[in-house]
Amino acid sequence: MRISRRALLKGGAVVGAMLGGGSLPGFMRRALAAADEGPARRQVLAFLFLRGAMDGLNVVSPYGEPRLSELRPTLAVPAPGEERKSDVGPGALLDLGVPGFGLHPSLEPLLPLWREGTLAFVHAVGSPSATRSHFDAQDFLELGTPGVKGTRDGWMARAVAQARGDRSRLEAIAVAQRLPRSLQGEAAAIAFASLEQLRLRPLAGAPGGAQGAASGKEAFAAVELLERKLAGRTFRPGEGGYPAAQVGQSLRLLAALIHADVGLRVGFAEVGGWDTHVQQQGVLARNLADLAKALAAFRADLGPRLDDVVLIAATEFGRTARQNGTLGTDHGHGSVALVLGGRVEGGRIHGRWPGLSDDELFEGRDLAVTTDLRAVLAAAARAQLGATDVGRLFPGYSGLVLPGLLRV
Amino acid sequence: MRHGIPWILGAVLAAACARQARKDVTPPLATDASQAAAGAAAEQDPEAGPPLSAQEQIEHALSRVTFGARPADKERVSRIGVAAFLEEQLHPEQIADGAVEEQVAKFPVLRRSSAELAQELARYRKQKKEDKAGATATAVPSSTMDADPVAEAPDPNLPAAALPRAGQRDLRKQLGKAGRGPAFDMVAQLAQAKLVRAIGSERQLQEVMAEFWFNHFNVFAGKQNEAALLPAYEQQIRELALGRFADLLAATAHSPAMLVYLDNWRSSTPMPPRRAGRGQPPRRNPNRGLNENYARELLELHTLGVDGGYTQQDIVEVARCFTGWTVAEPQRDPRYVFRPGMHDPGPKRVLEHEIAAGGEDDGNAVLDLLSQHPSTARFISRKLVQRFVSDDPPEALVQRAADAFSSTGGDIRSVLRTIFESPEMWSRRALRAKVRTPLELVAGSVRALGARVDDPMALARAVARIGQPLFAAQPPTGYPDDAASWLSSGALLARIDFGLALASGQMEGVQVDLAPLARDSMGPEEMLDRAAAQLGMPALSDRTRQYVLTQLRGAPLRSPIFASRALGLLLGSPELQRR
User: Do B53 and B60 meet the contact criterion of CB atoms below 8 Å apart?
Assistant: First the structure.
């Protein structure tokens, strides 16, 4: 027996309606009415959430700050060209051509992107909320309303709702086990950790052993379209230079979805492991190496399609300017964000550098925030989705949309 | 002196009782507690609908304090009464559980000491390191014996026949350092034992609470060598699950698993223990000092809650109090010790209280302060109401539960009684208001079908695939407990797939007896009704009924294929995603 897709779609609608898990009848109608093929070459906004608070000061490191080595006697990475301090530490920072700032040596695969001008950083970026709770800060970022927990939907759900152009059943996808708050809300977003998760096993005794691919709610249509679009695309380990780490596999899937023209407008992926309280040198170096390899492979994979993509990689807050007592760093405030895309004003560090002296540090201990992350996200949403209503995208936000980051 | 003898007698009696079971602080639930509360709920909130019927009360009780009703459970609760059943479950020490203990005894990891497990893990990791160094030296390509788990990922274009083992990758990938070698084996055994208990233990509420508290005091198996420390940690939580909150808090604060996971074992005063040099002030040693990780999560996640009224300075002060709370040797001798040389002896001020205890007692004083704090009472009560009533905890009930928490010195059983006799719990609004977590879905489905489990590993993989790999929650927040988090599309598909696999006998080591459900003489409607009844779904909605019958159209109307298909589809239906 082959499970009927049509009937399952109806059944899926039942599932969605009864569970109330974000299913939208309007979306279902659109999905059913929509042509099988979405229009090709949509503009995509991708967000890679670096969960756990990435230490921005060691990612794009302000080696020109005289106080850095005093704040981080062990953890500061040597300036470009300098000797490494010990056997365990990483080598010297990579020269970015920006006086006083160097790139963590594990990010070397990103240098070509920086040089070709598709990669930019925004430094001292973050949230106006002073919270140092991972949980709250991640929620605030995903809801797009720092300090307000009651917001009903996520910023990416609101962004895609504003998107110009035809709707698609696959316009919002999270490569994640659970639907992130960023996409909870009005958009009929889909979440899956891997294509494998979307498949049903063949039923025992089914004639011909036909594989019954089916779904709950709107995922039904997604699976069918994905199967068709991604047919023939194999995912061999190591293929395309993607690292085996989770971030590599997630970005590979995201790139495949972009290539397949399934109608994607906003894509979400996530990677944890940035909460480096103890002996952070090794952990951070490994995480950054995976991140850099994944982003470089993503860029190579997209090729000319990078012109249609803006990917922002950001974290919920930074870490203490001072190293702590266990060769790590504790929860801080400002950090750094990475922005990758064909229309990015790359090869530049955007934002305003606040300095590291005691009165320049936030609450005397953390890198201050001089650019609200929402200014970055709003710029990307405007460029990629045509979402110009910032007040709707970020309720209560009256700050700027970061100028000069993206060529419109 | 006249009162001397009775006083001594009383003390001896109290000590004797403490050694047995902890005494009840509050009276048992009234016999008609659920009936009265259901009536009161309907009166207070007529819009919610009529009061829960006696049958609904039974189903509701089972859905909240067990991992799902077995076919015989309803009949039994109906016989002894809802309140008596709840009271029984509140006293796990009085419930015989030999059968399940015998089953979990098959997992050696539960019998081995933390030291033994930690040493095994350390030996393995040392060997791996040496192998790697040797391999690099002689330029031999790395072994494929322990291939990267991702490399085992099935090609999406391969037939789905590979799916019965699906979930293995989810499990390994999410486990970090514990994704391979003996650490994976330890976690896999522990996860299987947890499933065996969730499915088969008669002490269901204790298991529900063990899961609740483990998640509350979450420790990730794969950060350092926590995999070796978790069996002891998990069992300790289970034993304290219905006791006093302060005891749980103290146990987790002293546990090597938590000390390693949240780094406190390394946190120390930055000053060296001895004078740096004659006549010179002591100098800071940059490689030694404070780590705020445990202190922050202790306040934010374990006790006060993020809005519980503490400051960044409180976190620093709490971290100072806990300096010296460490582990003898995590790799060889993972046992709590206090090291005075690491302790910051200076004065501290936490939540506007001077902590002047000194030494090890600084930490104990903080734990006392926190476990008695009103914010803790509210935070814990809110989470419990969210677990037992609904995702949106009714404020009035949270307050009453918090009052019970405070007035009983944090007696968990008393807080649960307050919830169990509340109109909010027995309101129609709470009926099937919770979405089952993947663990609840998997364990509950097996319980409902009375399936025989010879090898629970396939079930552990299923839980992982649906999105909750056990012991693999990386952040200290643990897994979420609300519907929105669990109902993503991929997870819904994995839920449907699990139902079909379980009912059609595709779960390795799990067998479902379909004989009572299907006879060739039965028509499709009858078989469907029987399947629904087996799963405890008397009120099958018309839509679900039509959906399943449509799906089954054209299926061979021969048992047991039809029955298994019907069961599988029902297991994936909206009704059974809820509890």
Answer: no
